[in-house]
């Protein structure tokens, strides 16, 4: 497939931006000025000021003499780059490959994109109309090369659409400056009477190199497609990305859902053929008003199950505000992993966490209540209760050791033991009753003590004597007394966990 490029030229970039911010300036001549060698000169002139003879580089004093009442504003160094980057990000709705062309343009690699808008002419017209509706005086051209598109956008007087292979005919009548040459080279060409590219293009290459330098031949070769030229992209799109432009703006949740389904089906089919699955996905919705809204999901394991992934996005759709309509959907999978083949366990009991259905259920729960609300713990090689379990990083993590089954352990362990008041008949006996969070609990059954020594090589402190107790309502608790019993000091009891 032949490469196709679109060059966009903003003839009054910064002044158009000023008018967008202050609409009252639309019909008023004004300039942006910058200090050069101690005097203020025009850095950018509005369209109205330009029509009255004000050009870039004109001293501000002269400009005011030419146009009485001329408004002057300070120029902002570096603002062009920021503005072009923002406009480039807006243009991603037309192609994922956009580059900034300082000081006043953008360059788009549109190979394979135009058919989505009904052909190249309609595609180019759509881009220009939309940019002008935003308030920017934009011109654009399409060609096989970056150089030809740039030249025609700025200097072309005929059709901005250059058919494939016709870049030579397109640039012949253009001014030498359209080749993006250095100013001194352009001046030298003009002094010799070369006011069009056709005047020197057929001259021997050796003569052109000696008189005008290697840069002229390079730019000429780039315009004709004989030298390679690459865009410096403002955004490197993920390798796993799908785009869905809309013929009419989408304004309903049903329409958004249909778009998400189509994108997921296409992306997941590709992932499946490559034995991969996504761990995170981002849906970007480009609205007609220029605002981008997005929704993202995550999975506990690599998945290319389109139906499951849609259920996760389905929870996010109500929060997507379409406003006047969404004209482009982009689905990206920034985090992709190898997906192991599913292990069918139809005849095996208890597939556990290896069952894909369990993993997908956890993903749906995470989408509703948040991933931070779901925890999985693995056993750790410690006797001290607070260190006996550790959080798992993912559902695939395998335990390094087994859970202790010789002693009962609560299903819920408090991160920090909580102080309780206890009445016990004999110090080494379990409590008869205890007060916890303002409520009195009478102990009906008890088991213990189980002494757990502190890991002295990690931190100093007293041992604990644990009891499993059950109150009159059938609730079971894990409580402990800290340290040895001593009649000369007060003993502290603590609540540390709850049994099912």
From TrEMBL:
Keywords: DNA damage. It comes from the Bacteria. SUPFAM superfamilies: DNA/RNA polymerases. Belongs to the DNA polymerase type-Y family. One of its GO terms (biological process) is DNA repair. This is DNA polymerase Y family protein. Residues 8-152 form the UmuC domain. Coiled coil: none annotated. Signal peptide: none annotated. Gene3D superfamilies: 3.30.70.270, 3.40.1170.60. Pfam families: IMS.
């Amino acid at each position: 497939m032949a490469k196709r490029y679109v060059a966009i030229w903003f003839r009054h970039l910064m002044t158009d931006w000023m008018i967008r911010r202050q609409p009252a300036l639309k019909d008023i001549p004004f300039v942006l000025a910058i200090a050069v060698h101690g005097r203020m000169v025009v850095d950018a002139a509005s369209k109205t000021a330009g029509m009255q003879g004000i050009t870039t580089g004109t001293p501000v004093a002269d400009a005011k003499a030419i146009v009485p009442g001329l408004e002057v504003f300070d120029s902002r160094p570096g603002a062009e780059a920021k503005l072009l980057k923002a406009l480039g990000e807006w243009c991603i709705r037309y192609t994922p490959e956009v580059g900034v062309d300082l000081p006043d343009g953008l360059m788009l690699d549109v190979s394979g994109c135009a058919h989505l808008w009904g052909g190249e002419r309609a595609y180019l017209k759509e881009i220009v109309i939309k940019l002008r509706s935003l308030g920017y005086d934009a011109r654009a051209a399409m060609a096989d090369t970056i150089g030809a598109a740039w030249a025609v956008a700025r200097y072309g007087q005929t059709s901005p659409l250059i058919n494939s292979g016709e870049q030579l005919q397109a640039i012949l009548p253009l001014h030498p400056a359209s080749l993006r040459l250095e100013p001194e080279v352009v001046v030298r060409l003009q002094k010799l009477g070369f006011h069009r590219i056709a005047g020197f293009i057929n001259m021997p290459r050796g003569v052109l190199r000696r008189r005008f330098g290697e840069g002229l031949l390079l730019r000429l070769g780039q315009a004709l497609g004989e030298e390679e030229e690459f865009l410096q992209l403002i955004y490197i799109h993920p390798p796993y990305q799908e785009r869905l432009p809309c013929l009419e703006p989408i304004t309903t949740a049903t329409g958004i859902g249909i778009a998400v389904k189509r994108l997921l089906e296409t992306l997941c089919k590709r992932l499946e053929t490559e034995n991969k699955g996504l761990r995170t996905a981002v849906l970007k919705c480009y609205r007609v008003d220029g605002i981008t809204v997005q929704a993202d999901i995550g999975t506990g394991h690599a998945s290319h199950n389109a139906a499951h992934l849609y259920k996760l996005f389905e929870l996010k759709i109500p929060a997507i505000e379409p406003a006047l309509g969404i004209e482009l959907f982009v689905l990206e999978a920034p985090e992709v992993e190898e997906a192991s083949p599913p292990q069918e366990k139809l005849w095996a009991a208890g597939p556990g966490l290896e069952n894909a259905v369990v993993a997908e259920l956890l993903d749906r729960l995470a989408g509703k209540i948040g991933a931070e609300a779901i925890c999985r713990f693995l056993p750790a090689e410690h006797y001290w209760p607070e260190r006996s379990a550790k959080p798992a990083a993912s559902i695939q993590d395998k335990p390094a050791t087994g859970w202790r089954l010789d002693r009962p352990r609560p299903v819920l362990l408090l991160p920090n033991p909580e102080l309780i008041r206890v009445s016990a008949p004999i110090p080494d006996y379990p409590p008869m009753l205890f007060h916890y969070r303002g409520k009195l609990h009478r102990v009906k059954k008890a088991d213990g003590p189980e002494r757990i020594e502190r890991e002295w090589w990690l931190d100093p402190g007293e041992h604990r004597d644990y009891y499993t107790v059950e109150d009159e309502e059938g609730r079971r608790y894990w409580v402990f007394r800290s340290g040895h019993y001593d009649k000369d000091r007060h003993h502290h009891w603590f609540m540390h966990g709850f049994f099912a």
